[in-house]
Every structure is written in C-alpha cells, then in structure tokens.
Amino acid sequence: MNNITEHIRNRRSVRTFDGRELSKADKEKLSSFAQTIDNPYKISVDFKFMNAKEYGLNCPVTVGTDLFVGGKIKCTENASVAFGYSFEMFVLYAQSLGIGTTWLGGTMNRSAFEDAMELEADEIMPCASPLGYPAKKMSIRESMMRKGVKADERLPFEELFFDDSFDKPLSKENAGKWVESLEMVRLAPSAVNKQPWRVVATDNAVHFYLKRSKGFSYNEKLDMQMIDMGIALCHFDLTAKENNLNIVFEQNDPKLETDTEYIASYRLV
C-alpha cells in the first residue's frame, strides 16, 4: 500500500453510502489484503465480511450499505492495541480503493455481530465497520454526529508530542525526521475523537503513551482507548517506513516521569 500519508489525510469516517454493492474486484482485493495484515505484536486478527440481512445485523448510524466487516482476536495481553493496528491497516487499504468505512464499537447490535463472527470462548470482536462507496452527501444524522465530536478537529502538535521528556512540548519545527510520522499520528481517528496518544521523541526513538480520557470504562475484552493506541502506532509505523526510516518496534519502558501509561516504542537502527 503506497502513498500512506495521502490515504490518512483523505480518509474520514463514512456513515452514509450510495447504495451500490461493492464490485467483485473490490471485494476480492479487500479479502486478499485482509489475509496479509500483520501487527507488531504478532497477534493474528481474523476478518469476516458479513451481509446485514443474512446475519440480522443492525447499525442505526449507517445507511446505504448492507455489507460489514468484523475482526476477531484472541483475548490476550496487548490484544486491543494489536487489533487497533491491524484493523486500521484494513481501513486505510479500503480508503485506497475509494471504499468508505467507520469504526463501530458500540452503535450496533453487538450480540448479533459477535454471533456472526462465530467467536470462540477465548476470542473478542472489539470493532466492526460498514463497507461501501460513500454517498455524495452526508445524512443529517451523520453531519450532526461529526459536529458533536468535532470530528474534523485535532489537538495542536505541541499538546500531543514532547521533546525528550514530558516537560518540553515538541514543535513541528524541531521534530526533524519524525515530523511527518507524528503528524500522521495527530490525524488518526479515535473513539469520540479523544486523541489519547502522547509521544515523547528523542533523537533515536519515540515512546508512545496513553493518556486516558475521563468517562471511558474499559476491561480486558473491550478497551477502546487501547484500540486507539493501536491506530496511532499503525499511522506512525507505516509513515516512517514509507519515509525510509529504519525503525524497530520494542516494549522497553524508559521510565519517564508521567501520569500516562507506557505502551511501546520505535527505535532507529
């Protein structure tokens, strides 16, 4: 998948579709790509394409498509972050084909989706997405939802990223080789647009942290803000590699003084 920054910049959540079925060629491309998706945690995500009428699926916030994709993953350590990374790879590939998506966590009849995914006892289905060609005009409901969460707004660069420690905000002008990869993190989607990622950048590494938002409940089976962290890692990783930065993924907590939760790091080699 080339031109990753273009796909990140152009993508938005789509809840209003034009009613056309996906072409056979696009369905085959999506299916083939889904089988190649990996993540830094090496935890497999299984994707399944589902017709709403066949499986009794219902999502009140989407119109104009009956096709959905779900993902399931073993309920293990780092599962939510790994899922976020892998599912976002799928979302960005769909964008490259002109196919609309939106992350669904709660606004669906979850039990029906989970039944359709045929979950085993040790598996979870954190999220799903509709699939279809975007309508030329959003529905009134979609427009109101986007306005409600300020979907087109993002926090300033200096509020999300830091220079060597949390004491010093990082400006775009001083971000050097990391600037585009971090900007793609800034543009990432997140649940209710809370943007919970915080990153400390050094000369040879970046360290990702989760700053939890108030009012979000979570457990080992559904942690939406950990999923958001996986999305952020995906944007950073794909952009850095497209920019020919030779990085490796690691979990090696630098023990910085912070009230946030360490997630993972990327280091230059």
Key descriptive features of the protein:
single chain; 269 residues; alpha+beta; NADH Oxidase; five-stranded mixed beta sheet; four-stranded antiparallel beta sheet; 9 helices; 9 strands; globular
Descriptive report:
This protein has 269 residues and is of the alpha+beta class. The protein folds into two domains: 4-141, NADH Oxidase (3-Layer(aba) Sandwich), CATH 3.40.109; 157-268, NADH Oxidase. The protein has helices at 4-10, 24-34, 52-55, 79-96, 110-117, 140-148, 157-160, 179-186, 224-242, and strands at residues 45-51, 67-74, 123-124, 128-130, 161-163, 197-201, 205-210, 247-250, 261-268. Helix 8 (179-186) links the parallel strand 5 and strand 6 (197-201). Helix 1 packs across helix 4 (79-96), helix 4 crosses helix 9 (224-242) and helix 8 runs antiparallel to helix 9 (224-242). The radius of gyration is 18 Å and the shape is globular. The model has no long low-confidence stretch (mean pLDDT 94).
Specify the CATH class of the largest domain.
Alpha Beta
Report the radius of gyration as a whole number of Å. Answer: 18 Å
SSE order, one letter for each helix or strand: HHEHEHHEEHHEHEEHEE
Q: Superfamily at the CATH H level of the largest domain?
A: NADH Oxidase
Strand order of the biggest β-sheet: 5-6-7-9-8
Write down the overall mean pLDDT: 94
Shape: globular
**CATH architecture assignment of the largest domain:** 3-Layer(aba) Sandwich
Category by helix and strand content: alpha+beta
Q: How much beta, percentage-wise?
A: 15-25%
* Low-pLDDT runs: none
Q: N- to C-terminal separation?
A: 23 Å
